[in-house]
Amino acid sequence: MGTNTNKRIGVKWVRDKAKSAYEKQSECHICGSTEELELHHTNSLTLLLEKWAKDNNYDISSDEGIVSVRNEFIDAHHSEIYVEVFTLCAKHHQKLHGVFGKAPALSTAEKQNRWIEKQKAKVLGIESADDKPKGSFSAFY
Hints:
Oligomer: single chain
Helix content: 40-55%
Structural class: mainly alpha
Number of helices: 6
């Protein structure tokens, strides 16, 4: 198998193993579109894998290294891989990454969840408390 020459190769081995159990929905979580659907992990699998390997002192610099530990990684991060995900249309997926970057920091997972839900509320025409102007007297009239 040899040494990885591309940082995505390691995570590709994980994705290849895990993707058969992904439950991509039939529509975008935000807008309901059924076109160009993509799966978004709120915890970047690449960053999660790199952190996990470092914390556990695993060498994932070769294909053999990642293949030998990928099942353990998948088991340890079941929720991040299979639960903390959203099916998004390409438009909303790109918009999310425009806000949070190509590989959002792991610490932004909850912020991403809130952003996704806020975008969905906007599409549904639901005003959130965060959107209301501060000091509004409209409740008194």
